[in-house]
Specification:
The structure holds 2 protein chains of 2 kinds. Helix content of chain A is 57%, strand content 17%. Chain A has 13 helices and 10 strands. Chain A has a 6-stranded mixed beta barrel with strand order 2-3-8-5-7-6. The longest helix of chain A has 44 residues. In chain B, strand 7, helix 6 and strand 8 form a beta-alpha-beta unit. Chain B has one domain: Rossmann fold. In chain B, the strands form 2 sheets. Chain B has a 6-stranded mixed beta sheet, with helices on both faces. In chain B, strands 2-1-4-5 form a 4-stranded antiparallel beta sheet, with helices on one face. In chain B, helix 3 runs parallel beside helix 5. Helices cover 34% and strands 28% of the residues of chain B. The chains are: A alpha+beta, B alpha/beta. The complex binds adenosine-5'-triphosphate (ATP) and magnesium ion (MG).
């Protein structure tokens, strides 16, 4: 009986193909919207998380400034080269520290020039920030110690200045200093916030101090915590040490900011999570509206098919069987809508993810949920029209014009 | 003919409406129908023929009095039980044919078999056989709008008899048809009655149609005015 009812409903749906599609359009759009929103939301979260991870693992940023907004960064004294060694030696759980200072400069090679950032740092920098060397080599110890005029290019200045040429051994100029290119970094691409991470030139910190800046200030320290430590412990340790080194009392206002990348990534994924949930909720409203659409058409269909229902009842259909028939019809309709919506939603978000350069994250759970939910929409909104059909009096129904 | 009554209506009254608007559609009706009879019901418009047919078809129950089907008191059955009674023992032919639109002849005929739980393969075979019996072999795949009125009514008859019912109820089955088509339908009913022993109860306004039956009853104001055996059915 159930099978024939199912077959009957398929036949009924096929008999009115256009109307069936229009009926389910609401559910199709609703389901597609939910799928697309959640899939793209997850894609965005995955993208942000991986971007922040690309900054380096278990990484903390240390730079001068007050957590209070009233104090400007520049009013706090800069960090010193010794600070890096002190942090590495005295704070528990620190695996590596890199000190860096930077400024913007016009870099010239032959008749080409490119405005970029010059970063003075040490080899530790490549480790904590997880930069690989694409060609060439890192700095040697003597280069670092003596402040030799050598540089390692990021992928962007390399492309802008050299195109297809081999940059190794070439001399580039920044200001009145000439640097020999000894290496090129691997490419990381754009960050979540849209800036080009590859757009800089690295030189030894001593070279930067002596030949570019003319002082020995350090702008930022990158501290990587060892795998097994909580970054928050390291954060507190660095804060305490810097306070001590800079002669600020226990209860005084600190003038060094320590930022945890994990903190940033947690915050970002929480924000995108909230956004995904919100968009998903809005999309489910359209699914609800789709359900009402099904109810609407089913009610029309019951009225339209009054004589048919009368006939079925007269030849021996039980009220419960008529109820089942209309319920199955509504459920099959909305489930079909659900399947089409899932296909549309996945296809659409695949294309959208491609266009937005987001990873396409396939989430099986949401597909199952959308499928089950669309079926439930059919049952919930099909019940009222189905009951109306089942309650018809066969004599009146047969006479209905 | 067998004399054990198949259907008995004993002092049946059917009242529609209440108070001043009360209509006594049936008013103390007595009617006994033996198994295998071909009965024609006649009478003026509003005399209660259709009301009586609805009752005999177990679609309606008396306000008072008893309706016995094979000794079972139908008025005491639940809606579901009456649905099963219709499913298993009765066949209906309506004046308006009432075929499902956009559904071909064979599928229309199969409909009551679906509710009887007959398997698809058997359904198909029996529907094709029934259509052959009413002279519509080769028209199985035609939709109602591709058939003439007479052919549509024959599909409806095939649908009513495909289950081999004990009783076939027909309320003005030829009402919409010209006399030649009507005669065809009548001969078909006579054949079903003779060959299969199906009890047939038919409402008609036309004395010529009634002349095909074995017994003719006349209604007036919800009662029997006359009840005659037809000595020589056409
Ligand atoms: N559902 C109903 N509600 C109220 N009155 C009804 C209802 N059905 C029938 N009647 C009344 O009962 C009486 C008998 O009606 P019925 O349909 O049985 O007549 P009939 O003999 O079949 O007439 P016709 O030859 O025109 O078909 C009529 O007066 C009719 O108005
Ligand atoms: Mg009538």
């Amino acid at each position: 009986m159930f099978w024939s009812t199912l077959l009957m409903s398929f036949r009924e749906i096929r008999r009115n193909t256009l109307r069936s599609i229009l009926t389910t359009l609401g559910v199709i759009i609703g389901v597609a919207a939910v799928i697309a929103m959640v899939t793209l939301g997850q894609g965005a979260t995955a993208r942000i998380t991986s971007d922040i991870a690309s900054l380096g693992k278990n990484l903390l940023f240390v730079f001068p400034g007050s957590a209070r907004r009233t104090t400007t960064v520049t009013s706090a004294p800069p960090l010193r080269v010794d600070d890096a060694r002190a942090v590495l030696e005295e704070v528990a759980g620190v695996a590596n520290v890199a000190a860096a200072a930077g400024r913007s400069a016009l870099v010239v090679y032959g008749n080409k020039n490119w405005r970029t950032g010059i970063t003075g740092t040490t080899n530790n920098y490549f480790e904590v920030r997880e930069w690989g060397i694409a060609t060439g080599r890192r700095f040697t110890d003597s280069e670092l110690l003596t402040g030799a005029p050598v540089c390692i290019l990021g992928a962007t200045p390399r492309r802008e200045l050299f195109g297809n040429q081999d940059p190794l051994g070439a001399q580039v100029r920044a200001g009145n200093v000439s640097f020999e290119v000894i290496g090129v970094l691997t490419e990381k691409g754009r960050s979540t916030f849209g800036d080009d991470q590859d757009d800089f030139v690295a030189i030894p910190l001593a070279t930067f101090h002596r030949r570019v800046a003319g002082n020995t200030d350090v702008g930022v320290m990158y501290v990587s915590a060892s795998e097994s430590t909580e970054t928050s412990n390291v954060q507190r340790g660095v804060e305490a040490l810097m306070r001590q080194r800079r002669g600020i009392p226990e209860d005084g206002e600190g003038d060094v900011i320590v930022r945890d990348t994990k903190e940033i990534s947690d915050l970002a994924s929480k924000a995108t999570g909230v956004l995904t949930a919100l968009l998903g909720a809005i999309a489910s409203v359209s699914l609800l509206v789709g359900g009402i659409g099904i109810m609407n058409i089913m009610l029309v269909s019951v009225t339209e098919r009054t004589r048919e229902i009368g006939l079925r009842l007269a030849i021996g259909a039980r009220a419960s069987e008529v109820l089942l028939q209309f319920l199955v019809e509504a459920t099959v309709l909305s489930t079909l809508g659900g399947v089409l919506g899932i296909a549309l939603g996945l296809g659409g978000s695949y294309l959208a993810a491609h266009a937005l350069k987001l990873p396409f994250v396939f989430i099986p759970q949401i597909v199952v949920v959308a499928f089950v939910f669309s079926g439930m929409v059919g049952i919930a909104f099909g019940y009222f029209p189905a009951r109306k059909a089942a309650k018809l009096n066969p004599i009146d129904a047969l006479r209905y014009e | 003919m067998s004399s054990a009554p198949l259907i008995e209506l004993i002092n049946v009254t059917k009242i529609y409406g209440k108070g001043d608007a009360e209509v006594r559609a049936l008013d103390g009706l007595h009617l006994t129908i033996p198994e295998g009879q071909f009965l024609a019901v006649m009478g003026a418009s509003g005399s209660g023929k259709s009301t009586c047919m609805n009752m005999l078809g177990c679609l309606d129950v008396p306000t008072s009095g008893d309706h016995l089907f094979r000794g079972v008191e139908v008025g005491r059955l639940s809606m579901e039980q009456r649905a099963l009674l219709r499913r298993n023992y009765l066949g209906f032919v309506f004046q308006g044919f009432n075929l499902l639109a956009r559904t071909n002849a064979r599928e229309n005929v199969e409909l009551p078999l679906i509710y009887r739980g007959v398997r698809a393969k058997d359904r198909r075979a029996r529907a094709i056989e029934a259509l052959g019996m009413v002279g519509l072999a080769g028209r199985e795949t035609h939709a109602p709008n591709e058939l003439s009125g007479g052919q549509q009514q024959r599909v409806a008859i095939a649908r009513a008899m495909v289950t081999n019912p004990a009783v076939l109820l027909a309320d003005e089955p030829t009402g919409n048809l010209d006399s030649q088509r009507s005669d065809e339908i009548m001969r078909l009913l006579v054949r079903l009655n003779a060959e299969r022993g199906i009890t047939i109860i038919m409402v008609t306004h036309d004395a010529h149609m009634a002349s095909f039956a074995q017994r003719i009853v006349q209604f007036k104001d919800g009662r029997l005015l006359s009840d005659e055996m037809n000595a020589r059915p056409a």
